[in-house]
Amino acid sequence: MTATGTKSLNDHESEPVGVAPNESGRHRIGASTGSTDDPVVSADSSDRTTTEEALQASEAKYRAIFERTSDAILITDVEMQTFRYANPAACHMLGYTETELCGLALKDIHPRESLPHVLARFSARVAGAHPPAVDVPCVKKDGTIVYVDINATRLTVDGRTTVVGFLRDVTERRQAQCTLRASESRYRRLFESAKDGILILDGTTGQILDVNPFLITLTGYSRVDFLGRHLWDIGPRENTQAARAAFAELIANEYVRYEHLPLEARDGRLIDVEVVSNVYRVEGENVIQCNVRDVTARRRIERELRVLDRAVRAVSQGILITDAVAVDHPIIYASPGFERLTGYSAADVIGKNCRLLQGAGTDPASISTLQSAIREGRDCAVELLNYRKDGTAFWNQLALSPVRDALGHVTNFVGVQTDVSERRLLESQFRQVQKMEAVGRLAGGVAHDFNNVLSVILSYGEMLLSDMQPGEPMRNDIEEIHKAGKRAADLTHQLLMFSRQQVLAPKVIDLNDVLTSMERMLQRILGADVELVSLPTRPLGRVRADPTCVEQVVMNLVVNARDAMPTGGKLTMETANVVLDQAYATAHVGVRPGPHVMLAVTDTGTGMDQATLARIFEPFFTTKEIGRGTGLGLSTVFGVVQQNGGSVWVDSEVGRGTTFKVYLPRVEAAAEAIIATAPPTTLRGSETILLVEDDDQVRVVATDILRRSGYQVIEACNAQEALVHSEQTPMTIHLLLSDVVMPQMSGPELAKRLASARPEMRVLCMSGYTDDSIVRHGVLEAHIAYLQKPITPEALTTRVREVLDGASS
Question: Rounded CA gap, 591 and 572, in Å?
């Protein structure tokens, strides 16, 4: 730096300067030390006095400057490099007294590492160069460092060459500069290493002044591409009014944020970014900083999460997420599907345990399985009975899965809940159908063998009774045997109806006509305390069914309804045209979709619970008192309806009555007239009959019955024997009477074999059951006359006579 004193000394640099003692004994700067005897001083005393006064005034002036200046002044001997003079400011700055300081050299006040530099600068000043030195370190007496700026000049003092140094303490300035440089370096590193893009804009023009490397890498543009351009010159908003308006908004508000701003890269890619811009005052001028964050990945994840959220909301299953770490595993999320499934809102269940869905019917074993899976942190799938908010039960198929963190620790459990009540119902229906099929096959098999036995019992009983006179001692016993046999035959017939193993005679009928013809009889069955209401639909579609079977169905339903109303009530019979759609058929096992005619029978009786409803169609199942029913009424209804191609479903509630709905397939055909067949005028004959029966007892009793009625009988125990008899018998065989199911060859097959040789021969088949054997063996397709076992003398001779007379084929 430059000081006034320095300039003055420089002006007199070539003049020697003496140092004389002043009044206090200290040396004076700027005065000569010559005596009055010196010949040089030859002027008169007045001139000398004037000169001395001038010198003293000058000395006083420079002394005042030397001692009072705020800058430190050190006068250093060039040869010794020691300090000759030091002003108070120098003493204060370095912490020494003047005496101490004047005993030191340059090397004593400068750090060792900077001493060569200081000495080199000192030599330069001695040589006449006067460059200023800045930030020169000096060591204070206490060892601390103070930094100074030095301006120095060469000066001759007392005949010796010295360097006068003016030192200004710049320690605080240097610290501020260091702090500023460190701050600038730190923020530059942040600027250049930031993982967000940063743009620095001119606050007035919006031109880009600086750009960090991240934004250069992100966009593919170079630094040169950015500098000098405007923010709206980059990307799809280039030069748009909206972009300029956004800049104006930024200037006005000094802050603006854009969350959805696509940025166009050099290669044409659009990058989703968020931009936050702020206006700052820097050295009195506005500067804009724009932080540009790449949110492409986050936007993609957000889109995926939105899709996932919509998917979770759309699925019908309920989804629960529980906390696996917290005590009692509280629910932390419940999906809309869960709300729809259970009736609970998310707010109802958040923070609670899933056991709130359990109830009295929930299987403890299923709960134990779930608890074990939770303890072990593994997947689990169970089906258990749960309860909705309104208390209704539903079958819940629960799939439980653990959620693990990066270390493999279970943090949550996800439960996916599916209402499988409908499926469970269908499975129950299917099991019921399978059970009914199995029971039906068993009943059919029993009925087949039992019919053969009953054929013998009933036939011999009737023949014995016909041979006995009234009043004979054994007649009553035989009549009781015959009655028991008939009851057994009736039960067997009902079993065959249940097992769908009776032969039908289907016709196209109108159910309204059937109900009308039965109405008077039904009213008598119901009694006076039951109101009968008929609600027919007209016109009503036609169905193809056996009229007798339909009457049997109506009769059994009405009798069952009467028993459910012991104190009276109302019974309603309704018909309607309905269409069963695929959804209904899917929900009801055994139902075929399409147009149907419905017959509904509704009573106001006692109703049934679910346990009873599950068994009402089973044979011999009854809730009636002993002796008041066989338990075959509703099972007969079930079998008959199914055999006629229909279905029957029941709805009942304890104390509110029962409705049975019978659905029969609708047909597009006119109703057929039901013509009663006149009975034959005689049951006797003289024709020849070829009897083929593999059961010996049945064959013997049938032969006996036919011969008693005047017929010629040729017996055969199987089809092969019958073929032999046919070949060996020259006489005409008027009738083939054969069992349907026999070993090696069935009755219908035998009839076909004999037809070519004996075309005039009529055929009558008989069987104890049909199952699908009658259809399989071609009885119904060929319209072969059929006789259902058990046979009795009257039934056998009547049917034989009808076939021989041509009344039935």
Answer: 24
What is the average pLDDT across 87-92?
92
Return the domain boundaries, the chain.
4-169, 194-299, 315-419, 507-667, 688-805
Res. 419: pLDDT tops 50: yes
φ and ψ of 604, to 5 deg: -105, 35
Q: Return the pLDDT at 325.
A: 92
Pairing of strands 270-282, 285-294: antiparallel
Q: Is 126 helix (H, G, I), strand (E, B) or coil?
A: helix
What confidence tier does 631 reach under pLDDT thresholds 50, 70, 90?
A: low
Asked if 494 and 632 count as a contact pair (C-beta separation under 8 A), the reply is yes
Question: Could you tell me which residues are beta bridge partners of residue 594?
Answer: 580
* Angle (nearest 5°) at CA 637 between 633 and 640: 130
Whether residue 485 is predicted with pLDDT greater than 90 in this model: the reply is no
- Residue 56 — φ and ψ, nearest 5°? -65, -40
The pTM for the full model equals 0.46
Cis peptide before 131 (omega within 30 of 0): no
Predicted local confidence at residue 395, as pLDDT: 93
Question: pLDDT at position 28, please?
Answer: 41
Identify the CATH number of the domain defined by range 194-299: 3.30.450.20
Give the tens place of pLDDT for each residue, 757-770: 999 999 998 887 55
Both tokens assigned to 453: 């036995």
Is the per-residue pLDDT at 3 higher than 50? no
E strand segments, 175-282: 197-202, 208-211, 255-264, 270-282
CA distance 732 to 689: 9
User: What is the model's pLDDT at position 441?
Assistant: 64
Helix H, strand E, coil C: the string for 695-742 is CHHHHHHHHHHHHHCCCEEEEECCHHHHHHHHHHCCCCCCEEEEECCC
At the topology level, CATH places domain 4-169 in Beta-Lactamase (3.30.450)
pLDDT of residue 675: 60
Class of domain 507-667: alpha beta
**Mean model confidence pLDDT for the chain:** 81
- Three-state DSSP at 322 gives strand
Measured over the CA atoms of residue 54, residue 58, residue 60 and residue 61, the dihedral's sign is positive
Q: In this predicted structure, what is the pLDDT of residue 774?
A: 47
Q: Would you say residue 620 has pLDDT above 80?
A: no
pLDDT at 778 over 70: no
Fold (CATH) for 688-805: Rossmann fold (3.40.50)
The backbone region for 627, taken as left when phi is positive above 0, alpha when psi lies in -120 to 50, beta otherwise, is left
Query: Which H or E element spans position 92?
Result: helix 88-94
Question: Which pLDDT score, from 0 to 100, does residue 38 have?
Answer: 44
Please report, for residues 684, 689, 691, 737, 756, the alpha-carbon distance to residue 761 in angstroms, rounded to integers and kept in the order given: 18, 9, 13, 10, 10
Query: What does the alpha-carbon distance between residue 534 and residue 516 come to, in Å, rounded to a whole number?
Result: 9
Q: What is the pLDDT of residue 13?
A: 41
Amino acid of residue 530: V
Q: Tell me which residue of 130, 140, 136 sits closest to 148, measured CA to CA.
A: 136
> pLDDT, tens digit, for every residue of 28-65?
444 334 444 444 444 456 666 777 777 777 777 778 87
Kindly write down the DSSP assignment for every residue of 423-481, as one continuous string: HHHHHHHHHHHHHHHHHHHHHHHHHHHHHHHHHHHHHHHHHHHHHSPTT-TTHHHHHHH
Structure tokens at 463: 């023949």
* Helices and strands in the chain: count of H runs, count of E runs: 25, 29
Same-fold call for 315-419 versus 507-667? no
Cα separation, 485 vs 678, in Å, equals 27
Residue whose structure tokens are 């923070």: 351
Residue with tokens 């009959």: 689
Fold of 315-419: Beta-Lactamase (3.30.450)
Averaged pLDDT, 412-418: 94
Rounded to whole angstroms, the Cα distance separating 197 from 272 reads 13
